[in-house]
Automatic annotation (TrEMBL):
Identification of the protein by name: protein-glutamate O-methyltransferase
Keyword Hydrolase: no
One GO process term, biological-process aspect: methylation
UniProtKB keywords: Methyltransferase, S-adenosyl-L-methionine, Transferase
Single Gene Ontology MF annotation: protein-glutamate O-methyltransferase activity
InterPro entries linked: Bact_Chemotaxis_MeTrfase, CheR_C, CheR_MeTrfase, CheR_N, CheR_N_sf, SAM-dependent_MTases_sf
Reaction(s) catalysed (UniProt annotation): L-glutamyl-[protein] + S-adenosyl-L-methionine = [protein]-L-glutamate 5-O-methyl ester + S-adenosyl-L-homocysteine
Keyword set includes Methyltransferase: yes
Enzyme Commission numbers on file: 2.1.1.80
Annotated source species: Thermospira aquatica
Amino acid sequence: MEIDVGVLKELASLVYEVSGIVFKDSNLTVLESRLRTRINEKHCSPREYIQILRTNDQELRDFVDFVTTNFTSFFRYPRHFEMLRTEILPKVVQKSSEKKITIWSAGCSTGEEPYSLAITLDIFLRENEMFDWEYAVIGSDISLQSLFVAKEGVFPEKAFTKVPEDLVQKYFVKTSKGYQIVPEIAKHIRFDYHNLIYDNGLRDIPVVFCRNVLIYFDLAVQLKVLENIHRAMRSGGFLFIGHSESLIRITNMFHPQSFSQGVVYVKS
Ligand SMILES: C[S@@+](CC[C@H](N)C(=O)[O-])C[C@H]1O[C@@H](n2cnc3c(N)ncnc32)[C@H](O)[C@@H]1O
């Protein structure tokens, strides 16, 4: 069945309204394949499906979930985690008024990033003998399907090809379903359903990872999301973004600071 380009554009604008995710005209094929799957399941026409989306919030949320790009991996960009442990966390500790470190993984997908952050925090606190310090990691995403995987905390062996063997041995337990994060780490992590377009009420967060998320938004949504992240952060807090992303020319709410392993943005 031919799908009218007008329908696809309407679908793109619905997805944009709800999530801020932009589907350019050159990228409508992604939406088209997702739409085909849905109309086959629902036995309706493309136009009828758009009507369903307009009147059924749950279906719209599910469709947005369906079109999100959730690629991620453990210790993605290892230098970020190295820099966090050796250069950023010592600064956070110096400025901290309480013995607790909280990190927000904004757009955490299936959880590999927040688990990598919690493992890094555990290593940092042990190697500095900071046994009376606490830590928490908050992972948030708009994709419920991804959050289910994240909460379960069980990953296939192939997810660990780039993870040092000693870390896998120490922080995961082999089960019949895959490798499960140990409870001593899992208990420090909370997963929340959250759309970055809105304020989630977090405040005073010293470190935020929002990597490979801003690329899916246009400038207006990037600014809105960055305002929300800025509000959630502690003054002088550190924001990590993806390698292909930059805040220069977008906002001066954050300024870039160079460290030996790369650039981190600091809340101005
Ligand atoms: C490519 S993944 C990045 C995962 C991880 N941060 C990393 O770098 O490996 C992008 C994630 O952003 C999420 N996302 C997209 N739009 C969002 C929004 N408006 N609010 C919250 N999360 C969103 C997607 O669901 C997806 O899981």
